[in-house]
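Letters spell out the chain; backbone shape is given numerically. Both lines appear below:
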Amino acid sequence: MPAILPRVRVWRGSIIEFVSGIDNTILASLEEHFKESERKSQPDYRKTVFCKDHPGVKMVRARSHGLIESGPAFADLNPLDHWRCAKAGCIRCYEPEMFGYYWDSGEMGSRKMRDSNPQPRCGAHPATPFMYVGKVGQGRRYLCPFYKCDKQGDEIGSVVIDEEVEIPKDPLIGLNKADREMAVFKSFIGASEIAIDEGSSNAEPPHPDIRCTVAGKLHWFELGQIIDKEVAAKTSRTRKTMDGGFGFSQETPFVYIVKDKATKTYETLGAPVDLALHFDLHLGTKRVVIDQILKHAALLKSLVGTGPFSRVWIYDEYTKCIVWSSDGRS
């Protein structure tokens, strides 16, 4: 009888299945080995990064005008794609693979401003990542951002005093669904300059989200977030972008929310319904927003032409501005 040889199927560098003749413990060990090697080929987003301009201030992980989604390779290391200085007034950012330390205000339409000064890189990896300012003892030194790489660069200070700064919190965190909807609606109304009467209230399905009156006449508003974290995780895939770091596909979630709202039916008592699609740096820079609107103009117009809405708005919660409206009020 011929010997039974182990059979191994390999997919993207990881042994996933299946093996005959090899102990499961050995298989698990081999798979973890491959995963560990994969982790070492990318930045570790759990590291503590300090600002280049304020070495005593820890930078915070931030969204770079993109959807939040964990990458498939090592999800717990790259859920967000850059760091931002937490000190009030500082716009210094750090991204390990394409920019290093740079400036970006984070406002809608802002652009990354490169640092023209030479920045140290770690030559131990093919990607030659930009090193970051990290804490070593009581001082600060340039360190490699890659997972478990211990290579160090120049010291920038032998003794640096840690500076505590207060990080602003999202005022909407902790609110229940109805309170958050009302908070977003009031913010949107302020930006749209729609003259609604006092006494707006939340409503339950089959009615739209918000009931109000305009010049004494009943009016409804339906809200839709672009894009909810859970929807983003289900509909988009991590991809590399040309403009820096780990980017996220905005198109699939954008189409998802528009098509989802197009299928809704509401009980409105004959009154008009406006749709306010809102986001807080989840969709992208203004250029990305406009690109999606232009590409899917017909889909957006169908919400008014054949859909249930009298007008459609796209509202940026972060800068509190109307990005687009179906009647041209942006």
